Amino acid sequence: MKAVGFTKCHPVDHPEALLDLDIPAPAAPEGHDMLVEVRAVSVNPVDTKRRRTEEPKDGPRILGFDAAGVVRAVGPACTLFGPGDEVFYAGVVNRPGSNAELQLVDERIVGRKPASLSFAEAASMPLTTITAWEGLHDRLRVHEGGGAGEALLVIGGAGGVGSMVIQVARQRTALTVVATASRPETAQWCRDLGAHHVVDHREDIPAQLKALGVKPRYVFSTNTTARNWDQIVASIAPQGAIVLIESQAPIDARQLMPKSVSLHWELMFTRPMFGTPDMIEQHHLLNAVADMVDHGRIRHTMTLNLGPMTAARLREAHAKVESGTMIGKVVLEGMGA
Length: 337
Known about the structure:
Elements: E1 2-5, E2 19-22, E3 33-42, H1 45-53, E4 67-74, E5 86-89, E6 102-106, E7 110-112, H2 119-123, H3 126-139, E8 151-155, H4 160-172, E9 176-180, H5 184-193, E10 197-199, H6 205-212, E11 218-221, H7 225-235, E12 241-244, E13 262-265, H8 270-274, H9 281-294, E14 302-305, H10 311-322, E15 329-333
Parallel strand pairs: 8-9, 8-11, 9-10, 11-12, 12-13, 14-15
Antiparallel strand pairs: 1-2, 3-4, 3-6, 3-15, 4-5, 5-7
Helix pairs in contact: 3-4, 3-9
């Protein structure tokens, strides 16, 4: 089958950073696995990081996490889906990825594709939506309908994860949502998604929050955590909570001690990677999000569709994500010639 992968770590502008490949198709699904015909994928920072830093050990590495497609076969333990069902999901880091014609994936981390979205639009959503949902509900423990009178600060509101944090928080909680953005177009994107306020993360964040009369109890940092750490610590209310999805440089958690602030990590791959007893929660939350999309409460975040997947187009997508200037998500649809 056709796939795009890599055999050696290279910078994104290297012609062999990603390669067009012809590899064996996956075996017949076993257990809870399904065989999915991949119709569209999107690119996340985790794709670019692994391409840059993780040398393949046993043949080509196939990346790709976000995907939307059609079920072609199911394993004997499957009860949630059958052949012909349209699905979307975010995969897991320790299995072959979605940058291929066919992929095996555990049905317990798969949701029904929103009926109102194309495959390309649906592929923009799973990883960022799961991250946003788990970060808010499982890590910060803001329950559905909760958070009245409290505020959430979203660092990096216009990125893939930030775009979904804003929407999930607005639709499922009573929190006042403050997003950070540094350009007029990204600030407007955050407002269009529902942010009550937008502040500039290149300026003094605590001063801007004070001017708004807001003292966030919660912070969801989606990027540049180390760069903004001192401002996050200064901004958060006593006895608040912070959730991080990255820190590209060390941070000093001891700074949180005077305010008794709790610190949490969110990695949406944890449940499938460790096979936790509650991994089916990702199936349930994706189905809930599909319902919200189909009822017009949440929208997809695809802002760029590069067309059929080839190594050249996927390199272009990686470069756009690595630039740090993407608004929303970049998507590729189907395998190219």
